[in-house]
Amino acid sequence: MDVTGLGRLKHYVGDPARIYDFTGDANGGRGDLVATMTIREDGGIDIAPPDGPAYSIAAGRDGSLVEEVTVLRDAEPWLRVTTEDHYRLGLTTVRVRGLSDPRESYLKALRYDPLTGVLL
Fold first, then answer.
1. Inter-residue contact 47 to 39 (CB < 8 Å)
2. pLDDT tens digits, residue range 29-76?
3. Which residues pair with 66 in a beta bridge?
């Protein structure tokens, strides 16, 4: 993680990486804590703002982050997200399935120029 004025910081699984707003004060102090990010054992990440709720991007049903991810809200399964990229067609589909509330489910198609990657 690169932080202005601090150089590159290394974080490993389980290490909290605190993110501050660095607006600071007149004496150049550190700003307010925005969120703490922690790399998970499954390769995902926990994102915890100081006032909650905490969110996590966690492994999918197959135990990896390859085919799908599970999004947790306050450690409870909230969403399942899968994507498919049809690069020859310039089409990416994002499927979100609401695990706690099926009404939060949707499918989104994103079209892009297959040569440049620019969204259309």
1. no
2. 567 889 999 999 999 999 999 998 999 999 999 999 999 999 999 999
3. none
